[in-house]
Amino acid sequence: MVEAQSWTTRRGSNPRLDPAADQLLDIPATPPGDVRNGPNAPGSLVSLTVVIIASWYLSNIGVLLLNKYLLSIYGYRYPIFLTMLHMISCSVYSYIAIVWFEIVPLQHISSRRQFFKILALSAIFCFSVVCGNTSLRYLPVSFNQAIGATTPFFTAIFAFLITCKKESGQVYLALVPVVFGIVLASNSEPSFHLFGFFICLGSTAGRALKSVVQGLLLTSEGEKLHSMNLLLYMAPMAAMILLPFTLYIEGNVLGITLEKARGNWNMVFLLFGNATVAYLVNLSNFLVTKHTSALTLQVLGNAKAAVAATVSVLIFRNQVTWMGMMGFAVTMFGVGLYSEAKKRLQEMISQPNAATY
Description:
Keywords: Membrane, Transmembrane, Transmembrane helix. It comes from Escallonia rubra. It is a multi-pass membrane protein. This protein is an all-alpha fold. About 75% of the residues lie in helices and about 0% in strands. The protein has helices spanning about 5-10, 20-25, 35, 40-75, 80-100, 110-135, 140-150, 150-165, 170-185, 195-215, 225-250, 255-265, 265-290, 295-315, 320-355. Helix 8 (about 150-165) crosses helix 10 (about 195-215) and helix 14 runs antiparallel to helix 15 (about 320-355).
């Protein structure tokens, strides 16, 4: 015979009616409306991230297209002076962003040694940017981006030559399609220009050299600078380095620019807009890293070359071949393999550290 349950027993069997269970159940309170709909709400954060990533794409691709239009289509054949305008713009906007709006804390140069290290980086930076802008006079943006995708190859070479750093076999193996793809694209590029090709390779190598040298020079805690502070100091140094070169090589470029501006005010808006977008590239790099991660920025950078190449073909209608597209695809595939191999290597290095207490 089954013993009948008392009212207390039945009540105790239901945790929702048990006073002791009320103490164990942790039901979070519903947040007020101002929190759910405020700027820190999940939906708002996602929307902000999407806007920042879209801005990153627009600024990175926009400065490429504007440089191509100015230097090749519009006929403004002064890449050194244009780069100097970019550096002046970055100097002014960086000062406003850091000193006035305080987007990052202002850091100061602490020693003469640190000053000369930043000056050396500025010189490499100048070489890379000037070569990149000059190459756009001779090469379509699509081919320019295909060559630029070989940056990992040059980074591995300079890391080995300067720091004697050896990568894993997987990393070196991933570089094979990077180089093979650009060979395919070069052999089938209808607008191939030998000088433009080598000057674009110089820009790519300079970009890789800067990343290696920056990691070598600014390593101590006292000398490390935030990327926005580094730009604040590098940009005016780069402008001063470029000034004598533009005066010697490009002649009376300032007078010619002013004369063109008097006859056509569009020139002023093009140069001002181009210089502003050049700074927005650096600002959007910082914002993407802040709101996502450095890995996200790397993935976006890998995809940017393909997006920029596609957009440039649609706008400038430059001729492309199937072999060229295949070579570009092989290069981008190699870049993806390289990024994945580097990621796995970093995880293998960090795992032993994560296991220690």
